[in-house]
């Protein structure tokens, strides 16, 4: 399991993050991201995951995270500037990480070995 | 209707034609099997008389996005003309074994899985070209999925309107309330796309939010 700090994530471009996640997950790793991904990065990750799925080796990923918080201050609202706060995220191979239960404050997942 | 009123109406529709040339483009999103195509078919049948695409209990039935232009919805005095895009169900994984479990041959399952991954890429790309989203969820299922979180996050990041259709309320185990608790910040309409239950409230909300 790799736990990746917010500082490290902040130094990476969206493409570098997606690459790092997919390389890790395809090597059977579970990744814990301290700060998660932006919605745009999540969309990129889904796209890239789809291009790399192959019938016998890689069926995709499982992601666990909480919805982003939209902490808009009044001024940001006036200027329609969204402030997105991303959150703790766990990513793993679809065949190894399974969600048991997920609600607002608690995610239960099980990790199995291949 | 008096002549003045008629003139006014014509004028206002002319005004709309000139200044509102671009119709709002609305994507119908959600996980596989949520009932997106069933809903798209109903909307298009109700307002144009045509049909959209095939519906099936096998997930990833829709593997190419389909667009229908110029669907005018009128409700409670508001009128909107929309381009409606029915998208392939979004997922973070596609396993061909799932198709085999539905009785398809291995080769066909692998081919469908490949098409499903391409469909998902297409659906993600469409997110950049929309003015609003109807997010369809199956109210019998857990709403806290990455797919829902990602679609909502992307709309919020762009300050674009999003309407949640809590579908399949005809089923006894459905719970639109669970969805409302999960995503309280967005308008939600409980519907059955299959039997049409509460569909008029959805049209009302569509006219209100996407106008
Ligand atoms: N009970 C019930 N079943 C529904 C409802 N809406 C859709 N279904 C059923 O759910 C299944 C999937 O419907 P589709 O409309 O194909 O779902 P979709 O979201 O377009 O699925 P994909 O294209 O595979 O992503 C079909 O068997 C539908 O008949 C509903 O309101 N109630
Ligand atoms: Mg469909």
Features:
heterodimer, A: 114 residues, alpha+beta, Translation Initiation Factor IF3, four-stranded mixed beta sheet, two-stranded antiparallel ribbon, 27% strand, globular, B: 211 residues, alpha/beta, Rossmann fold, six-stranded mixed beta sheet, binds guanosine-5'-triphosphate, binds magnesium ion
Rg calculated over all Cα atoms of chain A: 15 Å
Distance between the termini of chain B: 25 Å
Hetero groups in this structure are:
guanosine-5'-triphosphate, magnesium ion
Radius of gyration of chain B, in Å, reads 18 Å
Overall form of chain A: globular
The CATH homology group name of chain B: P-loop containing nucleotide triphosphate hydrolases
Q: State the total count of DSSP E strands of chain A.
A: 8
Please give the domain count of chain B: 1
Structure description:
The complex is a heterodimer of chains A (114) and B (211). Chain A has helices at residues 6-10, 14-26, 39-52, 74-78, and strands at 2-4, 31-33, 61-65, 69-70, 84-85, 89-93, 97-102, 107-111. By secondary structure, chain A is an alpha+beta fold. Chain A has one domain (2-111): Translation Initiation Factor IF3. Chain A has a 4-stranded mixed sheet. In chain A, strands 4-5 form a two-stranded antiparallel ribbon. Chain A is globular. The model of chain A has no long low-confidence stretch (mean pLDDT 85). With 211 residues, chain B is an alpha/beta fold. Chain B has helices at residues 3-19, 36-48, 96-101, 106-126, 146-157, 176-182, 199-209, and strands at 24-29, 66-75, 78-86, 132-138, 162-167, 188-190. Chain B has a 6-stranded mixed sheet with strand order 2-3-1-4-5-6, with helices on both faces. The chains are: A alpha+beta (114), B alpha/beta (211). The A-B interface holds A 38-40, 42-43, 46-47, 49-51, 53, 55, 59-68, 70, 80, 82, 84, 94-95, 101-104 and B 90-96, 110, 113, 117-118, 120-121, 124-125, 127, 142, 144-146, 149-150, 152-154, 156-159, 181-183, 185. The complex binds guanosine-5'-triphosphate and magnesium ion (MG). Magnesium ion is lined by residues 36-37, 61-62 of chain B.
